[in-house]
Specification:
By secondary structure, the chain is α/β, with parallel strands linked by helices. The chain folds into two domains: about 5-150 and about 295-310, Rossmann fold, CATH 3.40.50; about 155-290, Rossmann fold (3-Layer(aba) Sandwich), CATH 3.40.50. Helices cover about 45% and strands about 15% of the residues. The chain is built from eleven helices and eight strands. It has helices at about 25-30, 40-55, 60-75, 95-105, 125-140, 155-170, 200-215, 235-245, 265-270, 270-280, 295-310; strands at about 5-15, 80-90, 110-115, 140-145, 180-185, 220-225, 250-255, 285-290. Strand 3, helix 5 and strand 4 (about 140-145) form a beta-alpha-beta unit. It is globular, with a radius of gyration of 20 Å. The two termini are about 25 Å apart. Involved in coproporphyrin-dependent heme b biosynthesis. Catalyzes the insertion of ferrous iron into coproporphyrin III to form Fe-coproporphyrin III.
Length: about 325
Amino acid sequence: MSQPIRRVGVLVMSYGTPESLDQIEAYYTHIRRGHPPTPEQLQDLKDRYEAIVGGVFPLRENTDKQVKALEARLNEKHPGTAFICYQGLKHAAPFIEDGVERMVQDGLEEAVGVVLAPHYSVMSVGGYIKRAEEKAKELGLKMSFVRSYQLHPKLIDALTERVEEGLRRFEGVDKDQVRVVFTAHSLPEKILEMKDPYPEQLLETSKAIVDRLGLTNWQFGWQSAGKTGVPWLAPDILDVLQTIRTENQADNVLVCPIGFVSDHLEILYDLDIEAQQTAKELGLHLERTLSLNTDPLYMEALSDVVYAQAERV
């Protein structure tokens, strides 16, 4: 008699996004822990979405595609186990708790959680894990988590390919004459007092790419800091661009947002519109590396870390 096939749920967690302009207020209110935004704050966010996509929301579609691609890759590579992927979003439906509940309703008894972000911080990935863990415990679901995967070889391969492609866009310019700026989402400065691994993990990823390509002209910067009245990690990318110009460090800049894995507001607005506008005002030629989205190498990296975590259970 054959053994029943092992079934493992995979909760793929990400920040979430509204699906249409009329959902922005509820989304923003959830981010603000139930406090509605002021009319000015709401209009500012609506303006940003309208500037990048005119009412179409690419992040939701990108995330859907990533979840499907991960499930397909896991089942193709590991036919002895049936992996079923579910979404769990931080600030939109289906929420993290909804994803855990769906797995239980579907009769799953074990699961792995993974966040679509390679670098761990207690304020980011840690928050996702805490919510999923609490719901899984409440419902009796056996669940473990991928905490980080910042140095997975296939992730580094995928990012290195993107930096190489980006550098080729500066025709006739030697790569050492292009300032490469790696970026990630800023977090409140207090994480430094907490010895949070986030900044160090980001530098590890950056240095791995630098070593692969033999880059000599590079630095790290932050972006998309919140407006909360407390200091956030700096320097911000807009300040970095200003410094590059005032100190005459380069005329050409390639931004590689290694802290993000798909196209969304922080990429399509903060970099492609806001940073690009600043660069033009400063007389800089700014390019951005392509996002990972459903890149096969990234899907390989994700499937590897999920499978490894499932094997530890």
